[in-house]
Fold this protein.
Amino acid sequence: MNNYCDFYTPEEWKKVLDFSENLETPCQIILSDVIRKNFIQLKNSLPYARIFYAVKANPAPEVIRMLNELGANFDVASVYELRRVLGLGVSPDRISYGNTIKKSEDIREFYEAGIRLYVSDSEADLRNIAKAAPGSKVFIRLLTEGVLTADWPLSRKFGCQADMIYDLLILAQKLGLEPYGISFHVGSQQRDIPAWQAAIAKVKNLYDALKNDAGITLKAINMGGGFPARYVEKNNPAEVYAAEITRYLHEDFGETLPEIIIEPGRSLVGDSGVLVTEVVLIARKSRTALERWVYTDAGLFNGMMETMNESIKYPLYTPKKGVSEKVIIAGPTCDSVDTMYENFQYELPLNLSIGDRLYWLSTGAYTSSYCSVEFNGFPPMKTYVI
Ligand SMILES: *Cc1c(COP(=O)(O)O)cnc(C)c1O
């Protein structure tokens, strides 16, 4: 239903096919050159921003190593990610602890490793940071409302309202921390660019209020991630996002911008990946059923978690040609949650057979990192970075 050439060059596609030909499925093939290209393009389109790669999107060691060499910084979510990133030679001054939900002993481990950049959104966490990581820089995270326009929203659970941000930044100073700035995340795969405009305007108001009423001059804005990868549904190219966001920043902050941080995950690694799967079974539920069920060896528990509620619609490619009809696509496990697409109109050829390969395109982000360890005994899929 999708053609690979909408996403990859013929050379890239040949590399994927050649490399995966004799591999066991499901597996993930990552084209490292695509990540390199995405990183350089992002850097050029937002030259004033420091890029912190959100490690959770794809924590493959080869990906971290390459981005480290390209000069990226890293936003990590746990001590486990921290140990991996440090173990690969990333220097602690290029790491931030962006998860607002953390144990006190974990903050201590970060501090002892040399990390001095933290994000918080609650008083209890802020007090923990002040104790376990004294003197560090803190961002307070703003609650955003990207729920309706982001395909994978991250709001509600994270961030706090503007008046609380104001209080917490004052408290941070009292506790001996450095009130460094305000962070937000407009929701992952955010297709509505004005979502950034609304968040930046709120940040500007807070900047002014803190300066005028509390004498605190903030230094930075952390705009999080949210930049989209290319999937089935259309979105604006990265350059359009960059140009618009730059315009919003200058409208509010004038010529000289504060330090700007971004934390892209999906947009850096999403379109670098191909998930190679095999058809396990094709079935109809009655003699007259119009729709076939196509079961593949990858599902929600081994790579395709973001198909939950059909949120992310990955492009699907089959080398088989011929008359196609609507199918329901499900994973291999004994759980009916493990059904990827029932409502969205995926079509596959009538001559598709058991054992045929299916390729999910643009699956470099939030796939391998979302695999269960052994649900139904299935191991997490392997990642190959080429
Ligand atoms: C997940 C996450 C990101 C990455 O978001 P994308 O939408 O994948 O770019 C960035 N920052 C924080 C704090 C996150 O939790």
